[in-house]
Amino acid sequence: MATEGLHENETLASLKSEAESLKGRLEEERAKLHDVELHQVAERVEALGQFVMKTRRTLKGHGNKVLCMDWCKDKRRIVSSSQDGKVIVWDSFTTNKEHAVTMPCTWVMACAYAPSGCAIACGGLDNKCSVYPLTFDKNENMAAKKKSVAMHTNYLSACSFTNSDMQILTASGDGTCALWDVESGQLLQSFHGHGADVLCLDLAPSETGNTFVSGGCDKKAMVWDMRSGQCIQSFETHESDINSVRYYPSGDAFASGSDDATCRLYDLRADREVAIYSKESIIFGASSVDFSLSGRLLFGGYNDYTINVWDVLKGSRVSILFGHENRVSTLRVSPDGTAFCSGSWDHTLRVWA
Amino acid sequence: MKEIMSNNNTTNISQARKAVEQLKMEAYMDRIKVSKAAADLLAYCDAHIGEDPLIIPVPASENPFREKKFFCTIL
Known about the structure:
The structure holds two protein chains of two kinds.
Chain A: H1 12-32, H2 38-41, E1 55-59, E2 66-71, E3 77-82, E4 86-91, E5 96-102, E6 110-113, E7 119-123, E8 128-133, E9 147-151, E10 156-161, E11 167-172, E12 176-181, E13 187-192, E14 198-203, E15 211-216, E16 221-225, E17 231-235, E18 242-247, E19 253-258, E20 263-267, E21 272-277, E22 286-291, E23 297-302, E24 307-311, E25 317-321, E26 328-333, E27 340-344, E28 349-352
Antiparallel strand pairs in A: 1-28, 2-3, 3-4, 4-5, 6-7, 7-8, 8-9, 10-11, 11-12, 12-13, 14-15, 15-16, 16-17, 18-19, 19-20, 20-21, 22-23, 23-24, 24-25, 26-27, 27-28
Chain B: H1 2-27, H2 34-48
């Protein structure tokens, strides 16, 4: 009975040593294909010119730290969430607030816009992800139509609609990610593998199929098959929590931002890290990253209140943007790439172009 | 006591077995050379950089954030 489930010659110790030797094998296989560095190949690419990027809009209205934001597909509206429990929908052209709802919890760490533009999702310390339909009827109370979709056993750190309003992907402090049906609230798939809180996720661009990447406090970035729930690839080169992950526009790579003060680029087909974006002078963590439309620029929001702009191919920093008066906590490029928005612990959001 | 121990053992073993299966799958996946991957990243950038409004700025009148129009409605 004590040996139930064991095969011949198999012990816990033998499985552990097989795991170690496989890890070694994985590194060897990856190293065999490491014939050149990305920045070396990129030497032949023309250098980028000078950048003039300024704050074009400042969105004021949150009463406390802004924790998360997302763009609407209309390239104009923005949803943002804050430590004080408020979720606000803004028209970024005019800076007007179009909707506001107060969540029953503080620290609303995640928010997302539905692809149709007709709803938003948010959650945080309530361990849930809730969907609010957006209505322009002044008589309707937005909070009344709230629908609880996801239930985790710890805080919600990130959420994203998939290609439709019908499904939501969530990441949680409970160490898992999950895919939910919005209408029924049913759990469609769960993703287990992270050894600690999952802090971020990003869906692959639709052309590249049903995968997503997640990053966590276990310093790992993991790529998942949405249908099977299986982890396809994992990367462990960061030296601290991974706060943000974002796919390269082609879907063949993704970037990450970490508390180890670096951002990194991982190529999925080469199955390895191919670039590190760091400087000795940058010692504070990167909280959020996103690519410009072509993938040539990587914007990183940092805990030292700045935004660093990196040349993705050459690995060098092309610009540093000042303006926020506290940590930058969230950053997204607009759907058509004309601007990017950053949110900060200084209670504001800024749109840069 | 022995039963509790064996339950722990079975869980640990099944976890260890899953870890080994996962690593096998990851170790034996098909990979391409970094030189090829890098070339493809460069090619994508090159193909799209002309349409990237944050690199090749469009005229101010076409970027709603850069233009100096004031958004007011006359009531």
